[in-house]
Recover the amino acids of this structure.
């Protein structure tokens, strides 16, 4: 059994909502396979947006004093960085966006200060999302955002589970495969495994359904 270390950021303001349930299933599957999962509920933390103060430009260290200070080392120590967020106006939620923006300090270390990848290694990025509508392009924008976020935190977008047509809290329980697939994805990721065998899981290079 691998001892994969996962940090999971859940980015819905609604507790026990659809993406919270996706995140919980993912976490259960990962723990079942022996992973250690650190769960951070973004709306229970004080994490503000990047203020573009330039404070990180020379050091790669964010100068803002809030809960992000404890999040940076979690990112650095993890093998897998997982993020869940519902779609709000074709976007991730604002608190998830705050997490993304605050990765600027890490982006500076890599691309300005040329310090290479965090702790000299790449991580796997996992994205879990849900929206009420069913449009083909529903997740296009957020996938792009997550790719850039994951790169800033020395990761590669490895897989995404993108669920359409769920709106009210708990709708996802009636979805034909969402929670089961999230659990299988957690399992596969914890084992450092191949996700290409999982139906309905998107990964780079796969055509979006
Ligand atoms: C402010 C707001 C904006 C939303 N915008 C969209 C949207 O652009 N497209 C969509 O499909 N669903 C949209 N939704 C619906 C949510 O994505 C959907 O209800 C989702 O299942 C919520 O997940 P949660 O329970 O994890 O918060 C929006 C919901 C809210 C509250």
């Amino acid at each position: 059994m691998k001892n994969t270390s996962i940090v999971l950021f859940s980015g819905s303001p609604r507790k026990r909502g659809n993406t919270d349930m996706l995140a919980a299933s993912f976490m259960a599957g990962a723990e079942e396979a022996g992973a250690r999962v650190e769960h951070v509920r973004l709306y229970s933390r004080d994490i503000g947006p990047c203020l573009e103060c330039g404070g990180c430009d020379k050091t790669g260290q964010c100068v803002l004093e809030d809960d992000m200070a404890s999040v940076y080392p979690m990112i650095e120590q993890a093998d897998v960085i997982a993020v869940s967020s519902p779609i709000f106006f074709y976007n991730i939620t604002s608190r998830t966006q705050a997490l993304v923006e605050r990765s600027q300090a890490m982006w500076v270390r890599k691309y300005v200060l040329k310090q290479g990848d965090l702790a000299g290694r790449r991580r796997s990025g996992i994205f879990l999302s849900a929206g009420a509508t069913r449009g083909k392009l529903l997740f296009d924008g957020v996938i792009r955002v997550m790719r850039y976020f994951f790169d800033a935190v020395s990761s590669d977008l490895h897989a995404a589970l993108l669920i359409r047509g769920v709106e009210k809290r708990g709708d996802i329980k009636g979805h034909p495969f969402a929670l089961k697939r999230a659990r299988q994805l957690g399992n596969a990721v914890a084992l450092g495994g191949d996700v290409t065998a999982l139906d309905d899981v998107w990964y780079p290079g796969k055509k979006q359904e």
